[in-house]
Amino acid sequence: MTTGDGRDDEPMWPMAAPAQAGVVPAQAGPGSTRDGSGGGADGRGVVTDGSGASAVAGDLVSGESGVSGAGLPQAEAVAGVPSGGGDEPEVVGRAGRKRPRAKVIALVAGLAVIVAVVVAGGIALNVYDQQTKIDRSTPTLAVSQLVDAMFTARDESTVARFSCKKADLGALRRLMTNVKDQEARFHTHISVAADEMKLSSQSVVEARLSLTGEGWNNFQNWAFETANQDGWRVCSARQLT
């Protein structure tokens, strides 16, 4: 400060020396004075109080003096790096995100079982389809399957598939009634099958019906009239003498 006579007066309080690089200037605490009677900071970055006790500013930052560092700037936390500072970043392994081998093996085994079931089901369906396929390509096939439907499967819906629209099958049905009566009377089962089939004309099939019971069998000769109605079908049946 310059006085009236041109002389520079001494400053009202000592100017603080420039802070050295890396040293945090100390702030005047409560009760300190600017005239030197209380605590203050010297040019070396040392905090002093009235009694002469001092602490290095670096100790306040590091916490080595036992004074809490609350209110001082803290290093910004970095994701994955512990707050302690110098430790290596924590690395999260990928093993936790992989499926355990046991689950993969179980999944593969389950898929294999499903494929096996589907394949086996397809084979079984094909075999069943071949066994139950309706084949009316010839008169003899129509006779054979009609006899099987009536006496073995005993399924009237299948009989109708091999019969003409106005079929006369009364004689064959009477034979079926007789077979059922014998089965009920003697508590046995009688099987009937057509064999030794031959065409006596273009549409007439002669066949032998074999009736087989427990300890006995019988043979009857029959003639079946057929017609091609969207495939060959049986229109009539009669027993030959």
Task: Please sum up the structure shown.
With 241 residues, this protein is of the alpha+beta class.
Question: How would you describe this protein?
Answer:
The protein is built from five helices and eight strands. It has 241 residues and is α+β, with helices and mostly antiparallel strands. The chain has a domain of 101 residues: Nuclear Transport Factor 2, Chain: A. A hairpin with a 4-residue loop joins strand 5 and strand 6. The protein is elongated. It starts with 39 loop residues before the first strand and ends with a strand. About 26% of the residues have low confidence. Keywords: Membrane, Transmembrane, Transmembrane helix.
Distance between the termini: 156 Å
Question: What is the 3D form?
Answer: elongated
What percent strand? Answer: 15-25%
Major sheet: 5 strands, mixed
The strand line-up of the biggest sheet is: 4-8-7-6-5
CATH topology of the domain at 139-239, which one?
Nuclear Transport Factor 2, Chain: A
Going by CATH, the architecture of the domain at 139-239 would be Roll
